[in-house]
Amino acid sequence: MRKFNIRKVLDGLTAVSAVASASSAAQQQQAGNRETEIQETLQSEHFQLCKTVRHGFPYQPSALAFDPVQKILAIGTQTGALRLFGRPGVECYCQHDSGAAVIQLQFLINEGALVSALADDTLHLWNLRQKRPAILHSLKFNRERITFCHLPFQSKWLYVGTERGNIHIVNVESFTLSGYVIMWNKAIELSSKSHPGPVVHISDNPMDEGKLLIGFESGTVVLWDLKSKKADYRYTHDEAIHSVAWHHEGKQFICSHSDGTLTIWSVKSPTKPFQTITPHGKQLKDGKKPEPCKPILKVEYKTTRAGEPFIILSGGLSYDTVGRRPCLTVMHGKSTAVLEMDYSIVDFLTLCETPYPNDFQEPYAVVVLLEKDLVLIDLAQNGYPIFENPYPLTIHESPVTCCEYFADCPVDLIPALYSVGARQKRQGYSKKEWPISGGNWGLITQSYPEIIITGHADGSVKFWDASAITLQVLYKLKTAKVFEKSRNKDDRPNTDIVDEDPYAIQIISWCPESRMLCIAGVSAHVIIYRFSKQEVTTEVIPMLEVRLLYEINDVETPDGEQVPPVPTPGTGSNPQSIVPQSHPSTSSSSSDGLRDNVPCLKVKNSPLKQSPGYQIELVIQLVWVSGEPPQQITSLAINSAYGLVVFGNCNGIAMVDYLQKTVLLNLGTIELYGSNDPYRREPRSPRKTRQPSG
Predict the structure, then answer these.
(1) From CA 108, how far away is CA 115, in angstroms rounded?
(2) Higher pLDDT pick, 610 / 51
(3) What residue numbers bound the domain in which 434 lies?
(4) How far apart are CA 571 and CA 578, in angstroms?
(5) pLDDT in the model for residue 646
(6) β partners of residue 156
(7) What family does this chain come from, according to its entry (predicted)?
(8) CA gap 272, 667 in Å, rounded
(9) How confident is the model at residue 593 (pLDDT cuts 50, 70, 90)?
(10) How many domains are contained in the chain?
């Protein structure tokens, strides 16, 4: 029988255990190395900030163009930006690298291309047929300044007028100069030694593309024959020319002048115009000329098959109309309509049924590019109503003062907001479809709803659907309608916080799940809204007044007198410290004559009709304390699960139960921080007189 050696068995177990422990240690070390390789802390290099889309109206617009076949609108700006607009939801933003101002845009009609002329005397050919438009060719003028460009329909020749009065011809296909130059001294009378000024207009005769009409700033117009390289006719006028437009038959044209007149010329009668019109001039007796008016900056002459032609012009108002808003004038037959605009007119274009210049134009709309707006006027309806603009250009209608972004919202939220917002549509718009209808929609990459909320200086709040590339306004809320509006300067809101825009929104807190909305305004006011699909009339607006004051120890007045600390009502956790106000409080004064317990704004005490959408739940206002106005609210949060809203400023923090309309907590900053208050405040006496403005 073989002997059993227990020692060897133990040695084997020890060896196996050592190997196992070594392999385990090696595995742990590898795992540890793997853990060190994974950086769980996000670093700045893990992110890349890039612009994905640009919303709002083009800043400082300077040029306008329209493709009547593809129905695409282009807007150039003074910063070299290029915005393209098609059907609602189709937009594109491009930028010239030089950043020079865009002075003119010309579409290659129905070819998916665009020519831009910049203030740095460069021409660029844009290819619009690709997903991201890009510049195909560029051409730089070194010796002359570009003032005007013209590209005839279905032509490959681009005519470029310059400040010196010369005209160069560019081949659009190769984007090179052809070598054909119309010199100013050959275009005008040989006997005339004075320079005619810069080229302000170029156009070809609608019936003969070989005849070119050239307008010089000084008042001279030349009809140039491209084949014979000489002038057929020369037309001279005493007043400077701003623009020229053809009648579609090519037998007459119209000029606008610096004295507010329009002259209509027959092509074959160059001696004098056969008609002179002063649209806004006062007709004087005894056959005298009308008083001069402001310059007519642009005129367009559009014919109709069934009636009188349209003459559309900007400017030309009489000088005695001081303070009158900019106007667009539409003359049709014997009627003259003056359409006032909210901002200065940059440019306008008449949209016509046909792109062919030698046919009846049949105008149906006018695009008016304003300094801060884009307006489309319907020419086919009486009264010339405007089209409702579907683009999100009104985002800065009132300056944006705060903005919040919410992603992955409940799927029923956007339809709910849209349904109540659709009832807010204003009346008086044209019943026709938006005429700029080119382009195609791209595929939406996001599968989750996104909402942007903007607060504005006039107290309005706008909800935008940001799920697609472009913004779509869903709903607009006017928070200022809860307050009494001042009728005169003496009755302005009594606040030292802000001189203008007392209803401006500062902070927005929103719960997408419960749809509860809370806003904080610049006049130290908080409004809580509840979403409802039913219209209600609120007889008494619920209101709560809160005192928030930074408590300090005894301070010394200039006379050396010790003043006890100012008490802050509601200090601690007493929930009944503030009693809700059913009506706005009237002015009150403390024993020493200082304004006390007065809110900055006055809430309406009359019944308030509230449409479906967001309706007022509670208005909270911070009040004056011992002659000191309330400080602006700097933080705000709402918790709809508990029915709480909390807000604070540099003086303290308050918590309100908006269901019970009760203040639950009111703490001064010194109670929160104690001796570790991070803000250094200068001691001040509560007896220091500080009366509110107004």
Answers:
(1) 7
(2) 610
(3) 412-483+501-550+602-673
(4) 10
(5) 96
(6) none
(7) Belongs to the WD repeat L(2)GL family.
(8) 84
(9) low
(10) 2
Domain-located, residue 528: yes
The residue type of 666 is N
The sign of the torsion formed by the CA atoms of 425, 429, 432, 436 equals negative
Which residues neighbour 96 within 8 Å (Cβ) at sequence distance 6 or greater? 80, 81, 82, 102, 116, 118, 124, 135
Pairing of strands 662-668, 652-657: antiparallel
Find the CATH number of the domain harbouring 514. Answer: 2.40.128.630
Q: How does DSSP assign 53-119, residue by residue?
A: ---SSPSSEEEEEEETTTTEEEEEETTSEEEEE-STT-EEEEE-TT-PPEEEEEEETTTTEEEEEET
pTM to 2 decimals?
0.79
What span, in angstroms and rounded, lies between the C-alpha atoms of 462 and 453?
6
Closest residue by Cα to residue 497 from 580, 621, 590: 621
Distance CA 528, CA 510 (A): 10
- Residue 575 covered by a domain: no
Q: Dig out the tokens for 329 from the structure.
A: 């004038």
The token pair that represents 166 in the structure block: 């010369």
Report pLDDT digits (tens) over 360-378: 999 999 999 999 999 999 9
Q: What is the mean pLDDT of the chain?
A: 83
d(CA 655, CA 648): 9
CB atoms within 10 A of CB 362: 17
Q: Is 23 helix (H, G, I), strand (E, B) or coil?
A: helix
* Each residue's pLDDT tens digit, 375-394: 999 999 888 999 988 888 88
Q: How confident is the model at residue 33 (pLDDT cuts 50, 70, 90)?
A: low
* Residues 6+ away with beta carbon under 8 Å from 597: 545, 547, 585, 588, 623, 624, 625
Domain boundary residue, one of 107, 140, 173 = 140
The residues with which 161 forms a beta bridge, in sequence order, are 148, 167
Instruction: Return the biggest CA–CA distance within the chain.
Output: 153
How would you label 232-243 residue by residue, b for 16+ Cβ within 10 Å and e otherwise?
ebbbbbebbbbb
Measured at the alpha carbon of residue 373, what is the angle toward residues 481 and 510, in degrees to the nearest 5?
A: 40
Amino acid at 677: D
Structure tokens at 685: 């006496």
Handedness of CA 470, 475, 481, 487 (dihedral sign): positive
Domain membership of residue 419 (yes or no) is yes
Residue with structure tokens 């730089």?
A: 140
Domain assignment present for 450: yes
Contact between residue 213 and residue 205 where contact means Cβ atoms under 8 Å apart: yes
